[in-house]
Amino acid sequence: MPLLTAHDVGIERGDRRLLTGVSLSINSGELWQLVGANGVGKTSLLRALSGLARLGVSGEVQRHGSLLYLGHASALKLSLTASENLRYHPACDVEACAEQIAAALAEVSLSGLEDRPVGTLSAGQKRRVALARLMLSPASLWLLDEPFTALDAAGCEWLERRMREHIAANGAAVFTSHQPSRFGALQRDLDLKHHVA
Fold it and tell me: What residue segments make up the domains of the chain, in order of their start?
């Protein structure tokens, strides 16, 4: 059974129709990239697939497994520490212990910064805190909006490796990115120019 199916999905923002007729089926072991120019509706579609956006969404989306949505904005509380953001943020829908959080932050190269307020971190470090949620969530489907933004070369390499590992373990992911493709034949593209209303 697919992890997510979408049939004839349309997206409206205000009085403007962005997309129409989007259909896809996302199965375990698949990696999809939403492709399109700025403003075409990639983020809006990703939010519709996640269930976070319902107003202005037509068609049918069915989710058959757990999912994790990480938005273009990192959704971090700047006054909280990196550890506190991972402990209290509902994005993972999971309660992680201190050891798991420390291991996740170590995985994203933030050891020693666990107790620093996120507001004092660089943009790339903030992105790494957000991406540490990938290590804590059991979700089989990841919906990632611009996950490579603000990462340095080492961070991009880590994220690419982590996404490949997730797919190899029968997970699935849908992502947006303005960077050149990193995944070759593993990646399937959904070009939204074919669905512009």
Answer: 4-65+140-195, 82-130
Do 11 and 17 contact (CB within 8 A), yes or no? yes
User: So what's the pLDDT on residue 93?
Assistant: 57
End-to-end CA distance of the chain: 30
Q: Which residues pair with 190 in a beta bridge?
A: 34
Kindly report the pTM of this predicted structure.
0.93
Mean pLDDT in residue range 165-175: 97
The tokens describing 148, both together, are 């490579």
Can you name the CATH fold of 4-65+140-195? Rossmann fold (3.40.50)
144-183 burial, b if ≥16 CB within 10 A, otherwise e? bbbbbbbbeeebeebbeebbeebbeeebbbbbbbeeeebe
Q: Is the C-alpha dihedral spanning 64, 66, 72, 77 positive or negative?
A: positive
Q: What are phi and psi of 109, to 5 degrees?
A: 65, 40
Quote the pLDDT of residue 126.
96
Residue 56: how many CA atoms within 13 Å on its side-chain side?
16
